[in-house]
């Protein structure tokens, strides 16, 4: 974890004078250790860090919440559980026993270096359990972080699991604040008709789940801002954030819309740069030069602009598709409705290009399924759709699985090696690699 003494002091809202008093060291000494270059080996630095850290704990104990129940120990549920368990007693429940055991043994459930670090080095007030209605009792907040898959029949996110949980919780605990972190379609939280249910969207990136909880881009509070419990939750989240993230209060519908429009914007941006890349491939011109030239406009920005095989993963496809359904009633909506279509045709174009290069036959090797470098999540990866398009055309596909095949054999057996993001281990077979990764980054 790269939090410094200065980060911690700023997070607490302390001046250097106040911090020096808390640590009981002269201001001049405090200033010196705060700017120390070799701070990791400096015992005074560690002493000050520990004291300020404790001071944060005391401050958060002033919050009226003492206990939280988190339902779902996935990316969203586990990261918020770890975050809150620095300050509150947290129980996280999951239907998957392996996950429960992992959390109790402080073993990582997925790749996330900050969670691993916190599991190893922090005293967390965190326990995990299989579902048990008794656990709904006496909790100040209950946070729901279960999946909301796309429902093909309704064209919306499937929120039935959340409705069932809220009903079940209310038979046992009438008054706790329930916070929905799972992504929902616009209007879902209102439909529950319970003033103590609020919606607060999550914006984390897989692979950086705890980091993005510690340094959130914003804290969105969807609920009645005159409700004391809602305000208390906002206060809690602010005090957990190390970057004093901006907090916005709004209605639950507006908060649900913030989440869907954010993810749909990201999907649109991916589709946009992918179309730019398709254009460059078609005209045999250099996509990288064009992206660089376009991105130097500060209104556009040099980030999130690296072409890929298409957007994928658990969230962007389903959230975009759900919003597309809700946009159908808007007569002038053309752009958003076309994003998903553009993504599909990108994958078809890539598959077609590979088939052309192989002259219709050969072996395609998949080096890794996951789309991003820092994540080990393979859910709904775009490459899987490309694989099924290739298989429809009877192209042989093999996967690199280290426990089954050596990398050398994999390289020899593959005519083309497909990677969404380039890996240096493929350098010696560069001419076989098929990627649209122009910048060797996410
Ligand atoms: N993954 C992300 O990057 C991300 C980011 C923002 C928002 N979201 C949203 O948050 C929600 C959760 O996503 P996730 O990625 O954490 O999912 P996940 O699949 O990683 O985790 C969900 C967990 O909930 C458990 N679960 C399912 N039903 C349950 C039940 N009834 N009781 C207890 N546990 C149950 C599952 O076993 C699983 O461990 C989704 O709505 C998703 O769209 C995800």
Task: Outline the structure in words.
The chain is of the alpha/beta class. It has three domains: 5-60, 434 Repressor (Amino-terminal Domain) (Orthogonal Bundle); 63-250, NAD(P)-binding Rossmann-like Domain (Rossmann fold); 260-434, NAD(P)-binding Rossmann-like Domain (Rossmann fold, 3-Layer(aba) Sandwich), CATH 3.40.50.720. The chain has helices at residues 5-12, 16-22, 27-34, 43-61, 75-84, 97-104, 113-121, 160-172, 188-191, 209-214, 228-240, 252-283, 287-295, 316-327, 335-357, 382-392, 407-413, and strands at residues 67-71, 89-93, 126-129, 141-144, 150-151, 156-157, 177-180, 197-199, 219-222, 247-250, 363-366, 396-399, 416-418, 433-434. Strands 3-2-1-4-7-8 form a six-stranded parallel sheet, with helices on both faces. Helix 1 runs parallel beside helix 4, helix 12 (252-283) crosses helix 14 and helix 14 (316-327) packs across helix 15 (335-357). 38% of the residues are buried. The mean pLDDT is 93. Nicotinamide-adenine-dinucleotide is lined by residues 71-77, 93-96, 99, 131, 145-148, 161, 181-183, 202, 204, 206, 314-315.
Q: Count of helical segments?
A: 17
Distance between the termini: 21 Å
The neighbouring-strand order within the major sheet is: 3-2-1-4-7-8
- Hetero compounds: nicotinamide-adenine-dinucleotide
Q: In total, how many domains does the architecture comprise?
A: 3
In the CATH hierarchy, the third-tier topology of the largest domain is known as: Rossmann fold
The biggest sheet, with number of strands, parallel, antiparallel or mixed sense and barrel status, is: 6 strands, parallel
Radius of gyration: 24 Å
The computed structural class is alpha/beta
Number of strands: 14
Globally, the shape reads globular
